[in-house]
Every structure is written in C-alpha cells, then in structure tokens.
Amino acid sequence: LVLMEVADRLSLKSDLEIARDIQIAMLPKGEHATGDARVFGTTRPANTVGGDFYDVLTLTDGRLMIAVGDVAGKGSPAALLMALLLAMLRTLVDEGLDAARLITRLNVQICRHSPGSRFITLFYGLYTPSTGALEFVNAGHLPPLVRRASGTIDRLDGGGMALGMFDHAAYETRRVTLAPGDTLVLYTDGIT
Q1: Rounded to whole angstroms, how far apart are CA atoms 73 and 158?
Q2: pLDDT at position 22, please?
Q3: How far does the chain reach from its first CA to its final CA, in angstroms?
Q4: Least confident piece of the model among 25-34, 68-77, 90-99
Q5: Cα(166)–Cα(174) distance, rounded to whole angstroms?
Q6: Bridge partners (DSSP) listed for residue 69
Q7: Tell me, what's the pLDDT at 48?
Q8: Hey, is 57 helix, strand or coil?
Q9: Nearest-5° angle of CA 84, CA 44, CA 53?
Q10: Which class for 115: exposed (0-12), middle (13-18), buried (19 or more C-beta within 10 A)?
C-alpha cells in the first residue's frame, strides 16, 4: 500500500509539473513593446500552479491591451479558472468592445461557467501609445499605481465588483494619461 501511495503521489507531482508548464506557456514571455510602451510581467505561484495571471496583446488598431488578475484560491482549481478566463478574455478582445462592455460580458460568462464559490479580480486596460491615453476597468482588483516621471505616485482608485460574483454587476471605464517617463505598476496580492 505504501508503494502504491508513493507511486500515486509521484504521478500527481508529474501531472502538476506538466500543468505548471502549460500555465506558464499561456502567459506572455519577456518584454512586450508597442510604440513607446514597454511591458514586462512575471508570476511565481505559491503552489505548483495558481490563479494569478497577466496578459499583454497588441491590437490591430495599435493599442496595447494589458490585464492582471487573481482567481480566488490556490492550486489547480484556481489555475483552471485562470485558463478559462484568459480564453474568454482573448476571444472578447477580438470583438473590439469598449472596456466596460467587455468586462460586463466577461463577468456574465464567468458567472455562467465557474463555481459560485469562486471569483476573479481583474484590472483590464487599453493603452494608446501615440497619446498616452489609458482607459481601464478595475473589477475588484488591487488599485494600480502610476509612478510619474517626477517621482510622485498616483493610485488609480475606483472600480467595480470582482468577476463571477453577480451576473448583473455594472462596470465603469476610467481614463488616465501616462506621460513619457511614467510607469504603470500592476500587481496581485502576492506582492502585498
């Protein structure tokens, strides 16, 4: 029985390591550049796999889509929901929706296709490199920080309900302008 238990644990460990490799492959690698914007992200799950994620895409109109989020919980359940969210997000981004409408639709889908005991915090932004305009929606995520070139720090407060809590939640698009030399800092609760 002990040998069978050890074999099962080794098999599970191998499966989790494969899942980690798949999860890492879903996330952007290295630096992403569009216009004057340089984006870098990294994640290190508390367990082999986890629910923290980020995404960066250059859209056909030249804007940059950035997203950072966190699925409530840890381990495999959070990682599966993270994969589901990224797939839905990338599909909706292709539809060219404005930020609030996209997050509203994403929330409805998360409510339909995830357990009621889980929710997802998400910061979603669309950056226009030519103007420095950032339009964003914060769905229950930690407030991003903007470190201005002058050294001052602005906190981007405000936002709506985390995804997956109520299918009728409303979201509001906010706007800020990033000047040359400013840095937008997005993070999850792994930092705090």
Answers
A1: 23
A2: 64
A3: 43
A4: 25-34
A5: 21
A6: 53, 122
A7: 57
A8: strand
A9: 30
A10: exposed
Q: Best-predicted range by mean pLDDT among 7-11, 45-49, 92-96, 180-184?
A: 180-184
The type of residue at 39 is V
R_g over Cα of the chain: 18
Task: For the chain, give the longest Cα–Cα distance.
Answer: 66
Tokens 């069978």 belong to 4
State the sign of the Cα–Cα–Cα–Cα dihedral 26, 170, 98, 40. Answer: negative
Position 19 pLDDT exceeds 90: no
Read off the DSSP letter of residue 140.
B
Q: Beta strand pairing status for 37-40 and 133-139?
A: unpaired
Place of tokens 């914007």: 37
Question: What 3-state DSSP class applies to 34?
Answer: strand
Q: Sign of dihedral through CA atoms 184, 85, 51, 26?
A: negative
